[in-house]
Amino acid sequence: MNATVLPPGLPRPAPSVEGLGQAFWEGATRHVLCLQRCQDCRTWQGAPELICRHCGSYRLGDEELADTRGVLYSWQRVWYPVHPALKDAVPYVVVLVALPQAPGVRLVGNLVNDPGGPLPIGAALEAVFEDHHNADAEYTLIQWRLMS
What we know:
Blueprint: H1 22-29, E1 34-38, E2 44-45, E3 60-64, E4 69-78, E5 92-98, E6 106-110, E7 124-133, E8 138-146
């Protein structure tokens, strides 16, 4: 994706690629969703941790999801800019996306194709990988698009 969701001038978040989230962010640069999963009980974890929240196992690994689709779980249209660079970008929509292929996991992102009205909970979404190439860092953010 060449264009970014939010306007120029906004400090771009540069996610850390160290530690427990490294596989997630490296997967994003390859345009795949990669999440932590317990090797014992097979529970997915959206936020990586040192132990499984379900069974307490320390045997955790990172696995790629088969596809990059999700379901709209919740959303909020943002009307007030929280940064001066956003004054002409509002309103925009922040979405909480449930991943059917990883039960219990929800990811947050921006909606790239806001229709301007109410959004139906349960609507099908697909991930949009927004590549950023800065002088000091390269990273990819995961945004979302309503599927037609």
